[in-house]
Amino acid sequence: MTRVLLVEDEPQILRALRITLQARRYDVSVATDGSSALSAASRSQHDLVVLDLGLPDLDGVDLIRRLRTRSAVPIVVLSGRATSHDKVDALDAGADDYVTKPFSVDELLARIRAVTRRRPRPEEGLAPVEIGHYRVDFASRTVSCTDATMPDVRLTPTEWELLGALARTPGRLVSQRELLRTVWGPGNVAETHYLRQYMARLRTKLEEDPARPRHLVTEAGMGYRFLP
Question: Is the pLDDT score of 188 beyond 80?
């Protein structure tokens, strides 16, 4: 049974989501603020975290960052904040997906199924690669920079999977459908906007000039290629 930590301070939404998830055989734990969520995450392991950003004691983005220091558990944000800035902040902090309120229960359940789907990690067994000033170590999931003046880089679990899927076959064109199937599952092969968003974020984090990428290259209308 999939174990879900639901972090939400609105009682009606919390109750409705708990009932919905339990009816679909999820094992649900609940927390109404950031401190309770961190305590729950410390006490037991979960397969998924669903959280609101507007918590009473801790901003949801900060909570995501703290959770990421201890776990690679998939995180789905469920929030009334709908601006691109809010979404980018949450995804950069380590969230795997973002659903805005008001939301469709069916869509939320589909997003949950996508991020919790059991699949081999595309980056397993890969040797480290060099991207600009960065050395990417897939085994330890760390990114180290050779230039001390540049900021540290932290990739989300989904970014690691996407980069691993490309780096596994350097120089080879990987189609959009293949990447979507590998990283997000066969039910998401039409969601090309996922790729555009995540590739843009990877380039911003790793490429010296994200507007003119040298390593994470787009082949228009076809897919993407990793060039060492």
Answer: no
